[in-house]
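User: My notes are a mess, but here's the protein and pyridoxal-5'-phosphate's SMILES. Can you give me a structure?
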Amino acid sequence: MTKTSSNSSNIAENLTQIQLNISEYCLKYQRNPQDVKLLAVSKTKPAEDIRKAFDAGQTCFGENYLQESISKIHELSDIDIEWHFIGAIQSNKTRELAENFAWVHSVDRLKIAKRLSNQRPDALPPLNICLQVNISEEESKSGFTINEIETVVDEVIALPNLNLRGLMAIPAKSENLQAQRKAFAEMKSLLQILQTKHPQINTLSMGMTGDMEAAIAEGSTMIRIGTAIFGARNVVGL
Ligand SMILES: *Cc1c(COP(=O)(O)O)cnc(C)c1O
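Assistant: No problem, the inputs look usable. Here's the predicted complex:
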């Protein structure tokens, strides 16, 4: 089982533990550990925790809340972090995303993709994006439906300042490995369908602290881990 009793005093140890978990699950499911990237999700956590993780070798960090993340990006501008945005996107905030992040995983409307492409500064490389899929078809979650994805992919690929890397999902919570795997397996098939036309799309951003084994089993290439690295978040609902 993935360890979840972590706290911020041992961030370096937690990262080592997660890398061990990744290796273990890759062995179990016949994956290459180099194909599973770790995104450290630092929402609600202070910049000093991010610095500790960076000093322990972690370079990619995921944030959910724009204002909070911009302060941390400025505070940590002396170190070479790759910033990923994974939170809900308000359309009037796309400019700050386009200017400050390397990746946005949570693109859930075509309008957002167009704005990000228009607002990406010329001096920066294209913005890496994933399209969020509402894989469990929950009312409360954003994202494209499986049926919408193929059309949207064709439109997003045509946008000049974006680099469409893949798909992202946050499936409905389940404690059961088989149920978790089912949702992730649908993501994997969806990616395979897209790859017949667009072989360069190869990212599956899926798996969190509670379902990383299932995600790795079904082909995740980027797991987004917060709690197991930085400890529990105090704020209810985040
Ligand atoms: C908070 C969050 C995570 C990390 O969740 P943990 O359960 O703390 O590992 C991953 N992805 C998204 C989109 C999140 O909002």
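Residues 41, 43, 64, 86, 170, 208-210, 224-227 surround pyridoxal-5'-phosphate (CB under 6 Å).
User: Great, I'll file this with my notes.
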